[in-house]
Structures are given as C-alpha cells and as structure tokens.
Amino acid sequence: MSFAGKQVLLGVSGGIAAYKAAEVVRRLVGEGARVKVVMTAAAREFVQPLTFEALSGQPVACRLFGPGTQPLEHVALGQEVDAVIIAPATANLIGKLAAGLGDDLLTTVMLAATRPVLLCPAMNDRMWDNPVVRENLDRLSARGYQVLPPASGDLACGAVGPGRLPEPELIVEAAARLVTPQDLAGARLVVTAGPTHEDLDPVRFLTNRSTGKMGYAVAKMARRRGAVVTLVTGPSSLAAPHGVEVVPVRSAREMLAAVEKHFDAADALIMAAAVGDYRPESLAETKLKRGKDHLEVSLVQNPDILKAVAARKGRRLVVGFAAETGALLAEAGRKLREKNLDLIVANEVNRPDAGFAADTNEVVLLSRQEPPVALPLMSKEEVADRILDWLAPRLAARRQEEPGG
Ligand code: PMT
C-alpha cells in the first residue's frame, strides 16, 4: 500500500466541499496513512473538527494561539509529514498562499512546509474563471505545488460548470503519486485483466471466475509508480483505475488483437487475464432451444496470447501468471520456459483467500535466473507492487543499455 507508514497533512479551507474532505481522510487512513488535519476558521463553519478527529484518530489543529496549541506547531507540521494535501483550497486560501501570507495556522504551516503539496481548488465557476485566481495558481505551480484541477458539474450556488472538488478517490490517487517513488516513470506497460467470454449463441457464453481484481491492481500500482499503462480487460464490473487507458475486449481473439496492437510501443507486458483456452467451434445465430436430452458442443483451441507475443518480444519484458490447482512450481516453471517469459507469477487458485475473486493473493515469483520467491498472503495491490519491484530495476537497466540511455 502506497500510504503504509506515511504521514499526510490535510489542510481544509472554508468551502462547501469541506464535507468531502472527510471522505479523503477515511480513504487515506484505509490505505494505511497517519493523517493530521489542519482546519481554517471558515472550514469550521462548514464541518466540525470532531468529524475529522473521529476519522483520523488524531486531534485537529485549528489555531495559532490559545489553549491546546503546541509551541512551534506551525513550523513543525509541514516538515514532519511525507506530503501535504489542501482540499478544498478556496480562492482566498490560494491567494494567501501565492502572496506568502501567514495570518492563521494553515497559511503559517504552509509558509514553513518543505514537503510535496497537492492543491485541490474548489469554488464557484466565476471565481475559477477569474484571471487573478489562475495567476495565483500558476505562481504556486511554478513553485512546485501539484494542482489537481476542479471537476465540472452542478455547483452549490446552482450554477453548472468547473469548480467542484474532484472525487475523494481521485485526490487520494494524485496524493499517492506524491508519496510513491516514481521508479516506472517513462515506462510503457500493457497489463491484461479479467476473464474472456466465448460466445455460444446470442445469449450464452463460456467464461471463468476471474473478476479482474489482480490485473486492475497491477495497472493501478504501475500508474502510481509513474508508468504509462494500457489495461486490456475482459468483461469486469470494476471501476477503471485513474489515469490508465482502458481497452475493453470480450473474447480471447479480441484480447490477442488488442495486446498485439499495444505491445509494439510497450516496454513490458504483464498478463493477469484468465484467457479461455477453448471457444465453441461455431456460434449459433439464434438461441439454442431446449429439447434434446444431450447436447454436444464442440470446442476449438484459442490462440495462446502470451506465447504469440513473447515469441517476438525483443528487448521487452514479459510477465505471465500461472493459475494452478496442483504441482504449482513444476507447472509454472514449464509455462515460464514454453512461453518464453521473463517472470511468471505462480498462483494456486483452489483456496478461498487467493486466486480468483479474492482481495488477497499468495503467489510465488519464478524467474529464469533467480531462485523462486514465495510471498506470504497479502492484498492484491501488495502482490502487484512486489511484481513491479521485480520489473522496475530491470526496465531501468535495459533503458541504460540503450544508445543515449
Ligand atoms: O481476476 P481475479 O479474480 O483477481 O483473479 C486473478 C487470477 C486468478 C485470474 C490471476 O491471478 C491469474 O492467475 N491469472 C492467470 C490465469 C490463467 O489464465 O492462467 P494459465 O495458467 O491458464 O495461463 C498462463 C498464462 O498464459 C497467463 O498469464 C494467461 O494470461 C496466459 N494465457 C493463457 C491462455 C491463453 N490462451 N493465452 C494466454 O495468454
């Protein structure tokens, strides 16, 4: 998890979107962060500090002076943390930060802050269009602040336009990139996920139990680490990871075409998809009717996508998964060699807490040269990170070897 062991300072200024900041805290804490909230006086008109205290498990800092304040808190807070998020950032606060003012705790903390800052403006659409607000934001961007532009939609004032605070999930995703080493920056990855659907007639198909969770986790964590990610996905109900190009497909043959199309421009391919090995030999044009006691369906073999693209991989790195119900290492090792892979993620799938549909997974990383690495049970995002830990230095080394690298 990107936020495990990380400390985040969340500054909340006074706009109606202050209530959404509570959800930002909940998500950050859920991802393992320690969150310290600083509120302006105007923010406290919209939301009680108690809301943030309950969600963060820490006292909320509100004042520069008076009872409960800590000496030098205004200097220490912005240096002790790994990142600062300001959400919502009002036009007033943005103006004060751009001008270098420090007339309350949050602005003073920001004057002394040395850590990366994510600024999430939210305001009325006319304020957002005001050149002075844009100039202030340009000045802050030039000083290294990351600015997450507001979303468009219904505003609290009744207008429709830009100015809404982006969804908490998006804010957390942008903040995750601030605290995650960008060791895949510049790398182009193709990731596959989910099942395939092999049509039998207009209403029926053959499929498997893959939900896409494993592949989506790989795409999400790779994007957090700076990669440009194309996710080729079979049918899945999961939301697309932010900042990832999603290419939806249904059948194995559609997945092959999509992978082949994007593989040429990629530096690596990671195939977590559960591709149907067989499809019905023919597709009935009308719905098959009930009546016969026995119905035989003839199946033909689908192309092996990994084998096809890995045969012409050149300098690209190719990672496969092996879903096994027995002889895990022997079968995974065979697939590693037969499919010409650089790494295979051996995945025992006949248990409830690993493999298909679970949020957790337990795998063994098997490569050509190194001894197998057996990972304990962990979340699929952590598994994704361990695969990317293997990939990142090898991709960097290959880039170094390139002319001009
Ligand atoms: O999606 P989830 O619910 O999170 O489940 C995750 C998962 C169990 C699907 C995933 O962790 C996993 O193990 N994926 C690989 C599933 C699979 O098809 O394994 P396999 O051993 O049959 O295939 C070996 C490799 O060849 C895989 O990388 C597969 O994508 C690829 N393959 C398989 C068949 C085929 N026709 N073409 C392929 O490219």
Structure, explained:
The chain has 405 residues and is an alpha/beta fold. It folds into 2 domains: 7-179, Flavin prenyltransferase-like (Rossmann fold, 3-Layer(aba) Sandwich), CATH 3.40.50; 188-286 and 296-400, Rossmann fold. The chain has 14 helices and 21 strands. The strands form 6 sheets. The protein has an 8-stranded mixed β-sheet, with helices on both faces. Strands 2-1-3-4-5 form a 5-stranded parallel β-sheet, sandwiched between helices. α1 runs parallel beside α3 (49-56) and α4 (73-80) crosses α6 (105-112). The two termini are 31 Å apart.
- The pLDDT mean sits at 95
CATH names the topology of the largest domain as: Rossmann fold
Rounded to the nearest angstrom, the radius of gyration is 25 Å
Q: What's the CATH architecture name of the largest domain?
A: 3-Layer(aba) Sandwich
Q: Hetero groups bound?
A: ligand PMT
Number of strands: 21
What is the CA–CA distance across the termini?
31 Å
